[in-house]
Amino acid sequence: MSERDHAHAHSSTTGKNLLLALALTLGFSIVELIAGWHSGSLALLADAGHMVTDGASLGISALAAWLAARPPSRRHTYGLGRVEFLAALINALSMVAVVFVIGSEAWQRLQHPGSINGATVSIVAVLGLLINLVVAWILSRGERNLNVRAAMLHVMDDALGSVAAIAAGVVIWLTGWTPIDPLLSILIGGLILASSVGLLREALHATLDGVPFTMNIELVGQALAEVPGVSEVHDLHVWPIASERLALSAHVLVANLASWPQTLHLLRAVASDQGIDHVTFQPESPAGELQPIQFVRR
């Protein structure tokens, strides 16, 4: 099986896992909405609303995985793998929006507390936590690219919301102290915001063709410049073309153009060791014009 076929199979499996997670999440969100409205619990309503956004994020992620699995075309010669970056960006932004909605409603509840049925909140929240854990397990069985990680973040943060709702329900059931409900909602909102900002930064960076944070492009350039027959590497670019695929282009100054096929083979091997599978190298003779950013053989 070719590398492209492997990528297609992974994307197909990821899409199926996301659709199954979507069905479970949306199904239980309806239960939580009804229970939250009946019990008067903001924590439960927030968790239900969070599960609805989880469903939307899973739907977006599933669509992105399906599009990413489509082969390249004349209009999209790299394929549509980058749509997964857009899905992750949308999901991260939606998480930030959910946090502000929860925080605003929690503040209102602190100013005007109401009656809450603690027993109903606890029981439904326990079921919600179980659903979230099942969904997280389903997502963990596929590849862990940026798109899936964004969906997983939604689910795990929703699991935290369920834990908060359980704690709020138990405290209200035993003591009748209702302020615990909005206070825990604010706490969980803060945790969600902290994790969302990191994902938002990474998704935006990938969308803007940024070099992966885990990669040092200076070391990549130097490794390429150390290839026998190479005098210098300049105009070096590395960017993501899909969640699991990196591309590289560079101009390579070589002493002897006649040995370029062997040099190219070695350059590709170095790029492959760096996790880069799509490369374009432009050979140049010593008479060519040098660029300001250079990686010179030591």
TrEMBL record:
Record keywords: Ion transport, Membrane, Transmembrane, Transmembrane helix, Transport, Zinc, Zinc transport
Membrane topology: Multi-pass membrane protein
Principal subcellular localization: membrane
Cation efflux protein transmembrane domain mapped to chain residues: 18-204
Annotated InterPro entries: Cation_efflux (IPR002524), Cation_efflux_CTD (IPR027470), Cation_efflux_CTD_sf (IPR036837), Cation_efflux_TM (IPR058533), Cation_efflux_TMD_sf (IPR027469), CDF/SLC30A (IPR050681)
Transmembrane domains' residue ranges: 18-37, 49-69, 81-103, 115-139, 159-177, 183-200
Pfam family, one: Cation_efflux
Domain annotation Cation efflux protein cytoplasmic: ranges: 217-258
Subcellular location: Membrane
Gene3D superfamilies linked to this entry: Cation efflux protein transmembrane domain (1.20.1510.10)
Family per record: Belongs to the cation diffusion facilitator (CDF) transporter (TC 2.A.4) family. SLC30A subfamily.
Protein name per its UniProtKB record: Cation transporter
